[in-house]
Task: structure prediction
Amino acid sequence: RNMSSAGPEGRKKMRECNGLIDSLVYYIQGAIADHEPNDKATENCVCILHNLSYQLEIELPESYAQSIYMQRRNTSSNDKTPGCFGTRSRKVKEKQQDTPLPEEKSNPRGVESLWHSTLIRIYLSLIAKSTRNYTQEASLGALQNLTAGTGPMPFAVAQTVVQKANGLPSIRTMLHVSHPTVKKTAVSLLRNLSRNTSLQSDIAREVLPDLVSILPESVPASDIVCETTASICYTLYNLTQSSSHNARLLLSADGLPKIITISMNDSNVFSKASRAASVLLYSLWSHTDLHSTYKK
Result:
């Protein structure tokens, strides 16, 4: 677990170690099957996999990168787009969003397991069944890592989490836990998921009221609550930017007074949360059909 935090070279060596990832996944599967999701070894295994999934899209070996992204390259050969991993632009993201992964292998091995639907379902199962905060946080964090990029893999993982594995109810529960870093990681995962336009209606229906309910009543004082609040605002921004319907959901959940209060900054430092709330307000005002409702 310590070694998996040793940076890019350490992650590379561990991903390449024959049988290591497979053994970690095998152990966690056994713990879940034996109804023992709270033991320390399971926590360690999940934390290792969490670390090994960090920057996975960028650090993939060339052989995997070619097979996963070849379809994208072929469809965009006439476009002057940057290479597979060298961009984070919105236009490229929108194009890549519609490019699915090649068909999943039925028996993944090694690094292939890290983004496979089997492991995604294991993470969601641990989120639902474990009461150990570090295990919950690592499972959420692994999914956050896997959905953080802009290529086909992150969007395919997002599709699996939301639509194929029905993961939103488990993630929603984590929004209401008392542990601040678990809550922060759950919100960060939802922020990543909400970038996928094809999933926004599902996410808004399932968790938008919950996101509004956990917004603080004023500008948060602590750094971790401030970051969590900013992530909530940016998630709501993603969900409402192109949808009047979702903006109405936010209104009906009484989110507007909270967002206005958070956007008002009394201190000399313009906090992340205040800035994010201001961006969200600006975006909400673009729905001209809601102006009269806003004024009320």
User: Anything to note?
Assistant: Residues 53 and 145 are 6 Å apart (CA to CA). Residues 71-99 have pLDDT under 50 and may be disordered. DSSP finds 17 helices and no strands in the chain.
